[in-house]
Fold:
Amino acid sequence: MLTIIIRTVMIYLVATVAVRIMGKRQVSDMQTSELVITLIISEVASLPLENTERPLLNSLVPIMMIVAIELIVSLLMMKSRKVRSLICGHPIVVIRDGSFIDSQLRMLRISREDVYSLLRAKDISDESGVKYGIIEPNGDLSVITQEEQGDMDIESKDLKDELRKLDDKKEEP
Structure:
């Protein structure tokens, strides 16, 4: 029994340190890779608790390797937009000039009703006053209204790229 208690405390401490090293985020704010890493760590951490015959080091080493991999991937994502886009995705415009872009909704596998719900959470009753409705990589909806847009130019390179892709699709026969 003492072995299980010691193992539990050690796994708890290592898993807590591992998650702290990866950064402070709520589950809803996590990127896909961070959520996957968290799930893997929890699974690996539970193995020595279920089977006391298994050496504790057999779980501690993989947890530390997973954290190291996550840190390396995070650094690569900070350095390269392509790596970040590959791992986390990129913003997707689903409303443009007050109209839904159904092809984008199908690609994301979300319905208009889902977007309406996200709009209502932002106190927007319908899409007609929305210049751009953008589903962010974390699943949030960002909204730029007609009034907010005004003469303002879009600064974000990833959003400019996304709008350029949409324009290219419109021009294709």
Observations:
- The beta strands are 92-96, 99-100, 130-135, 141-145.
- The CA atoms of residues 121 and 141 lie 10 Å apart.
